[in-house]
Specification:
Blueprint lengths: L1 H5 L8 E3 L28 E3 L33
Parallel strand pairs: 1-2
Length: about 80
Amino acid sequence: MKLAQYGLSGRFPDVVWDGIVNKDLLVDGDLPLDQSICIPDVDVVMLNIDMGNNFANVTEDMKSHRCSHEKLAPVSLDLAG
């Protein structure tokens, strides 16, 4: 996949996503924020391979993924016992 998309000297993206979404969750054709994959770091690139459409629209368009979710409370594990 790397060779086909980026050539011999190209850089593989940080994240590869199959692009498959649960169509029942779509609102006006888009996933709501609470269901979206958010990557707020502008230096991170995600490749959507559009597997559900037989790879018809492979893209690195990050517009719908430049978001963030509310932070979750930290998890503490007691590993002493």
